[in-house]
Amino acid sequence: MADDFGYLNARVRARRGTLLKESFFQEALDLSFPDFLRLLSESAYGQDLAGQGLSEVDRAIAQAQARLVGDLPRLVTGEAREAVRFLLLRQDLANLQALLRAKATGRPFEEVPLLPGTIKEELWRQAYEAQDLAGMAQVLSVPGHPLARALRAVLRETQDPARVEALLAKRFFEDVAKGAKVLEEPALRDYLSLEVDAENLRTAFKLMGQEANPEALFIRGGRFVDRLRFARLLEGDYAALDELSGTPLAGLSGVRELKELERRLRCLLLKEARKGTADPLGAGLVLAYVKEREWEAMRLRLLARRAYFGLPKELVEEEVTCA
C-alpha cells in the first residue's frame, strides 16, 4: 500500500477517465426514461444498474459512487489517506444535514441523496429510523464517528432544525476538520476555507431576519466572509454579499434567495475544486475528483426524475448546468 499522493493520483487519474462527458448530460436532457436507462447502461454506472425503475437508477448511482469514491482511503496510507478521509468526512456532514432535513419534513429515507462517505448506508438508515435526534446521535456513536459527539453537543444547545444544521457545520469545520488544516496541502486548505465561507453564507440566508447571535453561529476559518459581513447578512443587508467582487465569491452578487445561493455556490465550489487538477503531486487532484463525482451523481438523479416523470427539460436544465 502506498503512502504518498503519487500512487493515489495515478489511480484517481484513471478513474477520472470514466467521468461522464458533458455531451452525456446534454443528450440526457431530451431522453425518455427507457432511452435514459439505455444511455446510463453504456456508462460506468451500467454494471450497477439492475432494473428498469427509478429506484434501481438511484441504487446504481449509490453503488457506483461507493465503488469509485468510497474505497479511496483504503488505497493509501499516511497523509494521503488523511486527506481523502477528510473529504469523505465532509460528505458525512452533508449526509447528516440531509437526514436531519428529511426527518424534519417527513421525506422518506430512500429519497435522501446520500454521498459516499465513511459511514455505510445501513447505518444511515438506522440513524434515520431512530426515535429522535438524540437517538440518531446514539446510532452514529457506535462506530465512534466524530459527528456523533458534535450532534450530541449541538442538541444540548438547540433543537431548532436550522440552528442544528448550522452548529453542526461550525463544530465540523472548527473541530473535526482541524486535522486537515495541519496537512501541508495548499489546494485542500484553500478549498476548505472557501467551504467555510459557503457554510457561513448558507447559515446567514437560512436564519436571516431571525433573532440569532452571530458569534455563536459564525464559523472561523474562512477567507472572504468575516464575522462583520456575516452579521450584516443575518440582518438582511444584501450589500455585504455584493461587496465580494474580486474574490472567488464574486459570482454571488445579486443573489437574494437561498435556492439561488445554493445553486451558485455549488458551481462556484466545483470550479475551485477543479483547480486541483493542476496539483498532480498533492491532494488537489483527488479533491477535484471527489467533487466532480458528487456533481455527477446529483445531475444523474435529477435527469432520471425528469425522464421518469416526463417533465419538460426547462424545469431541471438550470439545476444540472454550471457555466
How is this structure best described in words?
This protein has 323 residues and is mainly alpha-helical. It has one domain. 62% of the residues lie in helices and 0% in strands. It contains 16 helices and no strands. The longest helix has 28 residues, at 78-105. The radius of gyration is 20 Å and the shape is globular. The two termini are 39 Å apart. The model has no long low-confidence stretch (mean pLDDT 92).
- The secondary-structure element order is HHHHHHHHHHHHHHHH
- Compute the number of strand runs: 0
Shape descriptor:
globular
Rg, Å, rounded: 20 Å
Average per-residue pLDDT, rounded, comes to: 92
Uncertain residue segments: none
The level of helicity is 55-70%
Our measurement of the CA-to-CA distance between the termini, rounded to an integer number of angstroms, reads 39 Å
Query: How many distinct domains?
Result: 1
Task: Note the beta-strand portion.
Answer: under 5%
Instruction: State the helix count.
Output: 16
Protein name: V-type ATP synthase subunit C
Function: Produces ATP from ADP in the presence of a proton gradient across the membrane.
Keywords: ATP synthesis, Hydrogen ion transport, Ion transport, Transport
GO molecular function: ATP binding; proton-transporting ATP synthase activity, rotational mechanism; proton-transporting ATPase activity, rotational mechanism
Give the topology, please.
Layout: H1 5-16, H2 22-28, H3 33-41, H4 54-70, H5 78-105, H6 121-128, H7 133-141, H8 146-155, H9 161-176, H10 178-181, H11 186-206, H12 214-217, H13 227-234, H14 239-242, H15 258-274, H16 284-309
Helix pairs in contact: 3-16, 4-16, 5-9, 6-7, 7-8, 8-9, 9-11, 11-13, 11-15, 15-16
Protein name: V-type ATP synthase subunit C
Organism: Thermus aquaticus
InterPro entries: ATPase_csu/dsu_sf (IPR036079), ATPase_V0-cplx_csu (IPR014272), ATPase_V0-cplx_csu/dsu (IPR002843), V-ATPase_V0D/AC39_subunit (IPR050873), V-type_ATPase_csu/dsu (IPR035067), V-type_ATPase_csu/dsu_dom_3 (IPR044911)
